[in-house]
Amino acid sequence: MSILLLGVNHRTAPLEVRERFAVADPVPALAKLMDRDDVEESVLLSTCNRVELVVHVREPDAARPRLLEFFLQELWDGASPPSDGKVGSWIYEYVDSEAIRHVFRVAASIDSMVVGEPQILGQVKEAHRKAFECGASGPVLDRLYHHAFSAAKRVRTETQMAERPVSVARVAVDLALQIFERVEDKSALLVGAGEMTEMALAALQRKGLAHVRVANRTLERARELAPKFGATAHSLDELPQLMAETDLLLTSVAGDATLLTKEAFHTALRGRPRRPIFAIDLGVPRNISPAVNELDEVYLYDVDDLEQAAAANAALRHEEVERAENIVLEERQRFLAWRGGRKAIPTIVELRERAETIRLAELESTLPKLGLDPNQAQAVESLTRAIVNKLLHAPLSRLRTEADGDDGPRTLAAARTLFDLDAESKAESKDEKEDS
Amino acid sequence: MRQKLPNKWNACATGKRSVLHELTEGFYLAAGLAAWIAIALPAPRLSRLALVLLGVGALAHTASLATLHQIEPVPSLTHLPAALSVSALTGVIFFFVLLMMRVRIAGFVSLVAPIAYLSVFIADVRLTPPAPRNAILEVGSWPHAHVLLSSGGLALLGFAGMAGVLFLAEHRRLKAKRSAPGRFPLPSLEALDRANIVALAAGLPLLTLGVVTGVLWVDDATGQYWRGSAHEIWMIAAWVIYAALAGARFGGGQAGRSAALSAVIGFAFLFLALVGVEVGS
Fold first, then answer.
1. Which of A62, A155, A257, B21 could disulfide-pair with A108, CB 3.0 to 4.6 Å?
2. Fold of A168-310
C-alpha cells in the first residue's frame, strides 16, 4: 500500500497547459478513478496554479503508468493528449513519503507561487471535502489530510511565514492599518489611474473602506473609473478641497511635473486638524514632492518604498520556510507512525493472541496442582499477565514504529518467523482443509 | 512589617488581604510573562491568555484593596507604595475601559502588566513604612480622597505618557519607512493618539481633584492651605504644566507627534514631582 501523487503546477507547466488539466468539479473524475481495481482512495486538487491527483494504491509500481495515462486521458481537455516529451517536463510524480511531504507542503503554502498565501489551505480542504463526500477519500487519505491541515495550522501559528504582506497592494493596506485604527470611517482619494493604485484601493475596500472619490485630468475619465469603486468623480481642479477631506491619498498620474507639493499638503492639513494623511504615490515620475514626508501629519510612501517593503517581507517569509519544512517533516513522521501502526496491526493481534493462548494454557495446567485459594490464584493470574505484557511491550512498540519504514516488511517478517506465527496459521489452514 | 492586630476578625481580614495581594502579584506577573513570551515565540493564544490573567489580577487587586477597610485601624494609603498600588489598579482598569471602547491597544498588555506587578510588589514590600518626620496628621476622609484621586490621575496620565512613547517610536519608524518589528503589530498611531487623549481628558480632572483635596487636607490638619513644602510646590507646577498641555490639546488642536511628546514630557515632570520629591524627602 502506497500513496502516489501526480500533478502539474505553476513551476512545471505554463498557464495554457494548467488550464487544460484544470477541472471545475473533481467528482466525475474521482468516480471514474474509484471504479478501477488498483485504486483504494483518491483526492483531486484543481486550482489556478496546480492540478494534483493523490491516490492510495495497493501496488504503486504497477499503478504508476496507469495513473499517468488516466491523468492524461481523463483530465486533459483537448482532442488528443500531448506528446510524451512534453508530458515528461510538465507532470511530476511523488511516491509515498515524498508524496506525503508534498501534500503537506502544498497545504502549508510552502509550495505556493506566493509563499505563505492563505487561499491554498481552503482549496485543499475543499478538494478533500469533495472526495470525502463522494466516497473517494477513505481512512488513509482522510488521516493524511487531517495531518496536512494540522501541519498548515502549525506553520501558520508557529512561524511568521504568512504574517507579512508581499504584494504592493497588501503592503499599502498593512501600512494604512498601522496609521489608522480602522479604514471603514476613512475617506480615500484616487488621483489618476494605474493598475497598482487600483489594486491597492480594491484591497483597502476589502478591509471596509467605503468612502472613495476619484479625480482625473479629465472628468470623463474620472466618471469612467468611479463606478468601479462606487466612488464620486472629480476633476483635478478640485484637489485642494478634496485633500482637506482625504485620509488616504493614492496617486498615479502620468506626467513630468510634481502634482502635489508640500505647500498643498500644508494647506490641506490646516483644514483638517488632528487627522493625519497616508499618501501613496505610485506615479513614475513621482506625483508628490518627497518633501511632503517632512510634515508630521503626512506619511508618504512611493512605489519604491512599497516594493522594498514587499521584498523585505518576502525575504522574511523565505527565512521562515526552513522552520515550516521542519514542521512538515514532523507531521509526516506522525502520519507514517500512524500508518505503520496500521500495517503492524495484524501481526500485533496475532502475537498477542498467541501469547495469551500460551499463558492461559499454562495457567490451566498449573493452577490446579498448586491448590491455591481464589485470592492467591488471582494474584498468580495477574502476575502472568504482567510478565507477558512486559515481555511484549518492547517488540510491539518496535513493530508499530518500524512497520512503515523501508525495513518494515522485513521487520514484520522477522517477527512472524521468531514467534512462529505463520507456522500456526499454516497449521490452522491445513486443519481447515482436512476438516473440509 | 505589618501591624499586629488586636482581634481575630482583624487577623482574618489581614490574612485574606495578604492572600489576595499575593494572588494579585501572581496574576500580574503571569500576565506580563505570558505577554512577553507571546511576543517572543510568537503565540497569539498566549497574548489572549495574558489579557485574561491581567483581568483576573485586577479583580484580585480590587478585592485586596477593598479588604483594607475590614482592618481596624484602616491601613493608611497616604504613603507612596500604597498610592502606587492604587495607581496600578486604576491604570489596569483604564486599559480595559479603552479595550471596551474598541481602541486596539491589546498589545499594551506587555507594558501594563509588568508595571502593575512592580507597583503591587513595592506596595507589598513596604505596606506600612515609618511616617516621615515632617508628615502631617491624617484627619477626616481628605487623606484617602487625596490619595485615591491623585493616584488615579497619576495612573491615567502615566498611561498617556506610555502611549506617547509608543506613538513617537511608531511615528519615527513609519517616517523612516522601516518594517514593523516582531509579529504582533503595535497599536496603530490613531489608537495611541486616542488612548492619549482619553487618558488626558480623564486624568487631568482626577489630578485636579487630587490637588484640591490635598489642599483641604493640609488646611484641616494645619489650619493653613499652603505650607510651601517641596511636594506642594512641585505638584502645583506639574498641574500648571498639565493644564497648559490640555489647553493646547483640546483648545489648540494639538495632535499626533506634538501631543505625544507633550504627554511624555508632562508625565516625566509629574513623576519627578510626585515620586522624586517623595523619595527625596
1. A155
2. Rossmann fold (3.40.50)
